[in-house]
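Morning run. Coffee first, then this:
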Amino acid sequence: MSWDQLKKAREQRGDSHFLSLKDGDKVVGAFRGQPYGYWRKFPDKTEWADWAEGRRFRFKTNLVVKDQDEWKAKIFEGSKTVSEQLLDVIEKYSQDCLFEIKRSGSTKDDTRYTIMLEKKLDKAELAELEKVTLKELTQGKSVKEDLPEVPEAEEEEMF
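And here it is:
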């Protein structure tokens, strides 16, 4: 296997669709498209449409980042706390900006993300970002809904 084949194999696995930051890492990108929100009960990976005891809010959105000399969409996934911070910066500055996202912490309990304005995008930069194909946030999965149990109908006797 060549290095190019190794890179292609890794990208086909699917992990390359998600943005992965480690403690101290930061990235600059633009949030594009509409977010996708769901509820998850860890460690189960099922995505639920509604809250229930033990489920936590999560969201996914497209973050367009520069990869070498070309813009590429990555899926940025976060918690309720991160979504609140993201909503605040988008409300204040709009989506037509580049933001710096920085991770500090290395475990589920101590990880924090900081989202700061990097710069407003001009018309030419926005036009360039519009050409980027965004990722499918549901990955072909449908969000499960909690449906009320319907009792089975009893068979009626005809005579």
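The CA atoms of residues 102 and 114 lie 5 Å apart. Good start to the day.
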